[in-house]
Design brief:
The protein folds into two domains: 111 residues, no CATH class; 326 residues, no CATH class. Helices cover 69% and strands 2% of the residues. Strands 1-2 form a two-stranded antiparallel ribbon. β1 and β2 form a beta hairpin.
Length: 473
């Protein structure tokens, strides 16, 4: 048991989990008799089963987090709906197994659950999800989606009361997620390259696959990359002499640029500004030298890939010519309808399924199918679905986040702040704050912060960070 726990504490375990995730996600071709790919689903069930076993064996729930994070990015089905989710009985079995793991943990270890620093904001958000159910037409779809707020709140309460946090473990996890997403973007671009042999080489590299990633679309992957890119800073500050750690950061930067996501580019710019600020404000001469070397390498990469960048800029200009609606992919159309819905239900909103009204208006106006699940903006999502109360709940959550992370700022807090602000800025034009994977990531990350000891000595000695003996080892 001791050797197993040592393995679960190591980066080998994290690498193994995300290697399995990578392989499982790569099964994307749907089986003729099922909507879901059976191999992808079997891997998903294996991760859920492993999570239940780990929870039943170890009191420190930190070891289950790689498995939970894996589940956020492992599903590769482009057309999931409430109608097809029940096929082959998979969701029912998986849900029962998932709940069973946490139930066994409570029966065996009997943890005491107390409200922690971020509980109030998350509880208010959860309540704002369900209030519209009191007056809108009932459906199982609206009920299921509206309960997600309490799932996020429950995960926060559970992990903030049962895990013993570890910063190195957390940032290793975030780097693993980042590299997984880089692979998925590469896979997306490679499939587009293969499927379009008649196009010029540079256009084939830029065109993409034409389907979403299963767990989300190509825009979604960008804000998760922006959230996790700053995690490399943790390891860069631990070994400032390593240029290679800086050069690896070029991979996610290139991935975001190649997605051609306008919102992704906004988040990336904010994240890079934050990283550069930390390096030049707190870093040593070695850090500054290495970031300049990386910048030169990035410029050289841009020179060699100038045609790709030219195509990106050309597309950007073409969208500008289409006006504000065209440039934002008709998001202004969605926002106008969200505002109308808010005016009908100003206090508590029209609920999560109110987005179907926008979908109907979209079909009537444009005559084409459009995959809309949310209002493509944190602000309009809060107002239309949850009203002024939902906006108030979100503001309380923001206050708690910034009050905690801007007090006694450490390197670890800098890293979170950079990624969080970058994604929240992206959230002005995309489904970020209320996206299921994003919410789960955030509630677990803040739980780890609350339960982690501050191991880094942030005393600045000749502008070089000094780590204590535990951290250095």
């Amino acid at each position: 048991m001791k050797k197993l726990e040592e393995f679960l504490k190591s980066w080998y375990y994290i690498a193994l989990v995300f290697l399995i995730t990578l392989i499982a996600w790569s099964f994307y071709k749907d089986d003729p008799q099922y909507t879901f790919n059976r191999y992808n689903m079997l891997f998903v069930y294996s991760i859920i089963l492993a999570n239940a076993i780990v929870l039943g064996m170890f009191k420190n729930t930190l070891y289950s987090i790689p498995l939970v994070f894996s589940l956020l990015f492992i599903i590769n089905e482009a057309n999931i709906s409430f109608e097809n989710a029940g096929e082959i009985g998979f969701p029912s079995i998986s849900l029962i197994t998932f709940i069973l793991g946490y139930s066994v943990y409570f029966l065996r270890f009997k943890p005491s659950i107390r409200f922690k620093k971020f509980a109030l904001g998350l509880l208010l958000i959860a309540v704002s999800y369900i209030i519209p159910l009191l007056y809108i037409d009932f459906s199982w779809s609206s009920f299921s989606v509206s309960m997600m707020g309490f799932i996020f709140f429950g995960l926060y309460l559970f992990y903030s009361n049962t895990l013993k946090g570890d910063f190195k473990y957390l940032f290793t996890l975030l780097v693993a997620i980042n590299l997984l997403l880089v692979y998925q973007v590469g896979f997306y671009l490679f499939q587009g390259f293969i499927l379009n042999p008649n196009l010029p080489f540079d256009e084939r590299l830029n065109i993409g696959w034409g389907r979403n990633l299963g767990w989300g679309n190509i825009n979604d992957v960008c804000f998760y990359l922006s959230l996790t890119i700053p995690a490399y800073l943790y390891f860069i500050f631990r070994k400032p002499h390593s240029v290679m750690r800086w050069l690896i950061v070029i991979l996610p930067i290139s991935a975001i640029v190649l997605t051609k996501s306008r919102g992704g580019l906004i988040g990336l710019v904010v994240a890079l500004i934050g990283i550069v600020f930390v390096i030049f404000y707190k870093g040593s001469k070695m850090h500054k030298r290495n970031i300049l070397i990386s910048f030169v390498v990035l410029l050289l990469f841009g020179v060699f890939a100038y045609q790709l960048l030219f195509n990106w800029i050309q597309r950007f200009v073409e969208l500008l010519v289409l006006g504000a609606d065209g440039f934002t992919s008709n998001r202004l159309f969605i926002y106008r309808h969200a505002w109308e819905i808010f005016l009908e239900y100003p206090l508590f909103g029209a609920g999560w399924i109110s987005i179907t009204r926008v979908f109907e208006a979209w079909l009537e106006t444009f005559g084409t199918y459009h995959r809309i699940f949310m209002y493509h903006s944190t602000l309009f999502q809060a107002l239309a679905a949850m009203g002024l109360f939902g906006l108030f709940a979100l503001i309380i959550h923001y206050i708690q986040i910034f009050k905690y992370f801007f007090r006694d700022v450490s390197l670890e807090k800098y890293i979170f702040i950079i990624g969080y602000i970058a994604t929240q800025v992206h959230g002005l034009v995309e489904n970020v704050q209320y996206s299921v994977p994003y919410s789960i990531l955030i509630v677990i990350i803040i739980a780890i912060f609350e339960t982690s000891e501050r191991k880094t000595d942030f005393s600045l000695v000749n502008k070089v960070y000094v780590f204590d003996s535990k951290e250095s080892s």
